[in-house]
């Protein structure tokens, strides 16, 4: 199948450059060399070898190999059963972190997938391979639809995620996810249990991480963030105190005023009367 191409969009967190699908000939080879972007091949059938940074893997149907930018790599189909594979070239500011979450990187550039129900055709059904083929079809059918292409790329990565307990994350990653969740949901009646559930860890473990890394509890961080947003609204809008309380996730105005005074030694009204804090009407 001829290679499909997409116009890169620098404003997107990920960009697809091209994709393709090929039944290779015997001992078809590429490299050694380096590539300027990430290149993922998925083996639909046949056998061959992949070499990256001096290490070699022998791969067959259901396996994928990742070429990392700047790493010397090469690959070759076998003589007896040459590969049929599909591939996709991509890059972007979020790609490295996404691949790390999928446990794919320069040190571990090979992925092994599980076959699902076979279909009538020349190769077996692997969801990862089928998704790359669907990306190839979408690039050919709708070359300008970047959001469709990206949605399929994110689906591809979702299929490559390890089972829950196998995903390795650092404490910084957990905290960043928790903070991001709080920053986007502080206006709602969220609990710390909700934050922990979103991050995928136990509430007690999240508490320990916050104390160790930030010197505060998740609950106090949430309250402080709500109060910081309330300060912004007090000085930049003419909203009533009750409206600001509701907008920042407090259950009632009395609770909001109590927490605000505890944090800043001023009531919200007193803060607004301070020089420089009065909103422009």
Using brief descriptors, characterize the structure shown:
single chain, 281 residues, alpha+beta, Jelly Rolls, Arc Repressor Mutant, subunit A, six-stranded antiparallel beta sheet, four-stranded antiparallel beta sheet, 10 helices, 10 strands, 20% strand, elongated
Account of the 3D structure:
This protein has helices at residues 95-101, 127-141, 146-160, 171-185, 192-199, 203-214, 218-236, 241-247, 253-264, 268-273; strands at 4-5, 15-23, 29-33, 38-45, 47-52, 55-60, 63-67, 73-77, 84-91, 110-112. The chain is an alpha+beta fold. It has 2 domains: 4-165, Sandwich (Jelly Rolls); 171-273, Orthogonal Bundle (Arc Repressor Mutant, subunit A). The model is unreliable at 5-10 and 117-123 (pLDDT under 50). The protein is built from 10 helices and 10 strands. A 6-stranded antiparallel beta sheet has the order 1-2-9-4-7-10, covered by helices on one side. Helix 2 packs antiparallel against helix 3 and helix 4 crosses helix 5. Strand 5 and strand 6 (55-60) form a beta hairpin. It is elongated.
């Amino acid at each position: 199948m001829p290679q499909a191409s997409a116009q890169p969009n620098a404003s997107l967190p990920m960009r697809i450059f091209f994709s393709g699908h090929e039944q290779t000939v015997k001992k078809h080879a590429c490299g050694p060399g380096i590539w300027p972007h990430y290149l993922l091949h998925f083996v639909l059938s046949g056998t061959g070898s992949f070499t990256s940074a001096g290490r070699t893997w022998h791969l067959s149907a259901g396996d994928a190999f990742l070429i990392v930018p700047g790493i010397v790599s090469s690959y070759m189909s076998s003589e007896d059963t040459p590969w049929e594979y599909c591939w996709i070239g991509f890059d972007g500011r979020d790609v490295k972190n996404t691949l790390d979450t999928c446990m794919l990187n320069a040190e571990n550039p090979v992925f092994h997938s599980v076959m699902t129900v076979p279909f009538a055709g020349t190769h077996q059904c692997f969801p990862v391979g089928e998704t790359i083929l669907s990306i190839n079809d979408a690039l050919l059918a709708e070359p300008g639809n970047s959001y469709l292409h990206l949605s399929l790329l994110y689906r591809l990565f979702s299929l490559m995620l390890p089972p829950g307990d196998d995903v390795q994350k650092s404490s910084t990653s957990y905290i960043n996810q928790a903070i991001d969740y709080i920053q986007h949901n502080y206006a709602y009646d969220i609990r710390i249990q909700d934050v922990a559930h979103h991050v995928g860890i136990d509430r007690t473990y999240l508490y320990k991480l916050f104390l160790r890394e930030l010197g505060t509890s998740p609950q106090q961080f949430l309250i402080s963030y709500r109060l910081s947003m309330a300060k912004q609204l007090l000085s930049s809008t003419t909203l009533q105190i009750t409206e600001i309380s509701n907008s920042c996730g407090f259950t009632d105005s009395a609770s909001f005023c109590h927490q605000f005074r505890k944090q800043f030694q001023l009531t919200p009204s007193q803060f607004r009367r301070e020089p420089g804090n009065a909103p422009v009407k």
